[in-house]
């Protein structure tokens, strides 16, 4: 009788323990079970981790799209007078790359650039007798709204004269201001 009571008591405790384990694990459901991440994004802890070139809650937005379109440039270089002119930023076949047309109000060849998050990177490249490179940041403001302005810092180096026209890239050295691009 004593052995049977121990067996019943042990079986009861084990059953209750198993019941609570099932209830506990069912309350802690997989946070990624109902999350669908687009564009090869991966769910981690209930949030999507997006691959390069995509953003948004479910990786549904192409990052570069906020840069695309027509912009009006306002700038004054370290060796040039104030200027205002139009440019356009267009998509390429790579999801994180763009081209900039009419850059510096000079280049006939579209300039290559890469978008990473809210930044626009112009790698070192040479066209039409000039070397250029720079970096810009897109932001929102009251006048132009969400993603309606870019602060661009870049340099143009003339390969014949080696003169550098700086647009805020070496701001402390040249006392120049960044180029402002507005939608």
Walk me through the structure.
With 183 residues, the protein is α+β, with helices and mostly antiparallel strands. It has two helices and 13 strands. The protein has an eight-stranded antiparallel beta barrel with strand order 5-6-7-8-9-10-11-13.
Give the SSE layout:
Blueprint: H1 2-27, E1 42-44, E2 47-49, E3 54-55, E4 61-62, E5 69-75, E6 83-91, E7 97-101, E8 111-116, E9 119-127, E10 130-141, E11 145-158, E12 164-167, H2 171-174, E13 179-182
Antiparallel strand pairs: 1-2, 3-4, 5-6, 5-13, 6-7, 7-8, 8-9, 9-10, 10-11, 11-12, 11-13
Name the descriptors.
alpha+beta, 3 domains, Lipocalin, elongated, 183 residues, Laminin, 8-stranded antiparallel barrel, 44% strand, two-stranded antiparallel sheet
* Separation, N- and C-terminal Cα atoms: 88 Å
Global structural class? alpha+beta
**H-E string:** HEEEEEEEEEEEEHE
Largest sheet: 8 strands, antiparallel, barrel
Total strand segments: 13
Low-confidence stretches: none
How many structural domains in the coordinates? 3
CATH topology tier name of the largest domain: Lipocalin
**Widest sheet, order of strands:** 5-6-7-8-9-10-11-13
Percent strand: 35-45%
Shape descriptor reads: elongated
Mean pLDDT: 89
Q: How much helix is in the residues?
A: 10-25%
If you compute it from the alpha carbons, what radius of gyration comes out, rounded to the nearest whole angstrom?
A: 28 Å
Number of helices in the DSSP assignment: 2
CATH architectural arrangement of the largest domain: Beta Barrel
Query: So what's the CATH class of the largest domain?
Result: Mainly Beta
């Amino acid at each position: 009788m004593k052995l049977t009571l121990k067996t019943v008591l042990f079986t009861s405790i084990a059953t209750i323990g198993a019941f609570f384990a099932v209830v506990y694990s069912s309350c802690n459901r997989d946070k990624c079970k109902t999350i669908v991440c687009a564009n090869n994004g991966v769910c981690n802890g209930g949030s999507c981790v997006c691959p390069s070139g995509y953003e948004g809650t479910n990786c549904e937005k192409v990052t570069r799209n906020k840069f695309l379109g027509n912009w009006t440039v306002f700038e004054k270089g370290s060796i040039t007078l104030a200027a205002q002119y139009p440019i356009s930023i267009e998509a390429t076949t790579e999801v994180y790359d763009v081209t900039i047309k009419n850059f510096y109000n000079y280049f006939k060849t579209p300039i290559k650039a890469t978008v990473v998050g809210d930044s626009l990177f112009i790698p070192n490249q040479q066209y039409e007798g000039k070397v250029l490179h720079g970096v810009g940041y897109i932001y929102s403001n009251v006048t132009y709204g969400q993603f309606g302005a870019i602060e661009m810092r870049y340099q143009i180096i003339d390969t014949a004269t080696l003169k550098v026209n700086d647009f805020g890239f070496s701001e402390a050295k040249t006392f120049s201001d960044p180029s402002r691009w507005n939608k």
